[in-house]
Amino acid sequence: MATTERAFLSTKLAEFGTTIFAEMSALAARTGAINLGQGFPDTDGPEEIVEAAVEALRGGQNQYPPGPGIPALREAVAAHQRRFYGLELDPDGEVLITTGATEAIAAALLGLCEPGDEVITFEPYYDSYAACIALSGATRRLVTLRPPGYAVDPDALAAAFTSRTRAVLLNSPHNPTGKVFTRQELDLIAAHCRERGVLAITDEVYEHLVFDGRAHVPLATLPGMAERTLTISSAGKTFSFTGWKIGWATGPRALVSAVQTAKQYLTYVSGAPFQPAIAQALGLPDAYFESFRAELQAKRDRLCAGLEMAGLEVFRPDGTYFVTTDIRPLGEEDGHVFCLRLPERAGVVAVPTVVFYDDKDVGRPLVRFAFCKRDAVIDEAAARLSRLG
Ligand code: PMP
Ligand code: GLN
To answer: CB of 38 closer than 6 A to ligand 2?
Structure first.
């Protein structure tokens, strides 16, 4: 953006420009390249859930729903947390429906943080974390994850805590790396939170996308964590309706109420006809969740094989629908430059992971590809990328 375009921007947002997702999707639209950048599926979710939304539209569910969300959806979220994780929640007060996970994250940070507080998160971080921490007046403290394993360095984690730490903001399964935090890492994070009286905010939007027989472990299920953890998720990834923007935050009443206080002044409510449809989706049989996971795991393998053939170093993800790579085997150094030229060189769009790192030296050669696409699209992208070498 030119300087003049930013002349009126609040200093709180001075370091933020157009998100990389918008930038790269616009690049794909402009060039006609295959878009493996922004993470959205190229096929819609279950037809019966679309029908449920149509029914709600025709059935008159078109005015403001209740502030915390319709009872049927709050009950379905509580039932989902019990069914998959054994977490008990009161749909009245411990479940809040939001405009996607994005709003839940924003409202959590705005509702729970004081100016001067610090929020610990892991880099590479989902871009809205940095922006919403800044909007809340808090400061981010980063723990760096490095390929190939993206493991948490226990010393770096310990060093990130100070007397001003308000919360740890955790994303597992993790975008953009595809890392699923290990039980040991979760235990360590939980121990710090308990010992220091720090809150946990967990972003679990990829909870159903964990591969190779791994299980998703919500931080709230660890000893002493339910009372200090706000758990966030959404329907976008699990049901392939990223445009519906139905999300939720769950946890102890006092945390959820703080988030709701902020949330009511952001959107107040949204998505009236989509709320009953997602209530139905959350109750789909186990077979839905299992086949969705198996399908995405096969797509992961398909794209990873293609990227390896193309000569990239591939860091095979344990979860999410993203895979990160190192471009240096291709003789390239700078992921941003690489991604800007990729449409013209290979007809593919990807995302430079460096934008999610404050430590630019770690992120510079890393590039993220999304595999939530039809097999034919993945194959075509792989064939095009194979010409790079
Ligand atoms: N958190 C992470 C880690 C994400 O990748 C995304 C993108 N879907 C979101 C939050 C936002 O989710 P939603 O679309 O439900 O707002
Ligand atoms: N979560 C998606 C991604 O990481 C995109 C979301 C967005 O465009 N903000 O690619």
So the answer is: yes
21 lines ligand 2 (CB under 6 A): yes
Rounded to 5°, the CA angle 94-126-372 comes to: 95
- By most ligand atoms within 8 Å of CB, the mutation choice from 38, 179, 234 for ligand 1 is 234
Partnered with residue 97 across adjacent β-strands are 248
Question: Cα–Cα distance between 41 and 348 in angstroms, integer?
Answer: 16
CA distance 207 to 314: 22
Q: What are phi and psi of 35, to 5 degrees?
A: -95, 95
Rg of the Cα trace of the chain? 20
Whose tokens are 């709701």? That residue is 260
Determine the atom of ligand 1 nearest the C-alpha atom of 99: 16
C-alpha distance from residue 389 to each of 137, 312, 328, 330, 352 (Å)? 46, 9, 11, 6, 19
- What integer best gives the mean pLDDT of the chain? 97
Residues with CB under 6 A from ligand 1: 100-102, 126, 171, 175, 203, 205, 234, 236-237, 242, 245, 247
Chain segment 100-133, per-residue pLDDT in tens:
999 999 999 999 999 999 999 999 999 999 999 9
Q: Give pLDDT, residue 232.
A: 99
With a CB cutoff of 8 Å and minimum separation 6, the contacts of 59 are none
Report helix, strand or coil for 92. Answer: coil
227 vs 75, 247, 250, 346, CA distance in Å?
Answer: 20, 21, 11, 50
66 — phi, psi (to 5°)? -60, 150
For the whole model, what pTM was predicted?
A: 0.97
Give residue 224 CA to ligand 2 midpoint distance, Å.
Answer: 32
Sheet of strand 351-352: strand arrangement: 313-315, 322-326, 366-370, 351-352
Residue 2 pLDDT > 70, yes or no? Answer: no
- Residue 368 near residue 176, CB atoms below 8 Å: yes
pLDDT tens digits, residue range 158-211? 999 999 999 999 999 999 999 999 999 999 999 999 999 999 999 999 999 999
Report the alpha-carbon distance of residue 145 to residue 207 in Å, rounded: 20
Q: Please check the confidence at residue 1 and state whether its pLDDT lies above 70.
A: no
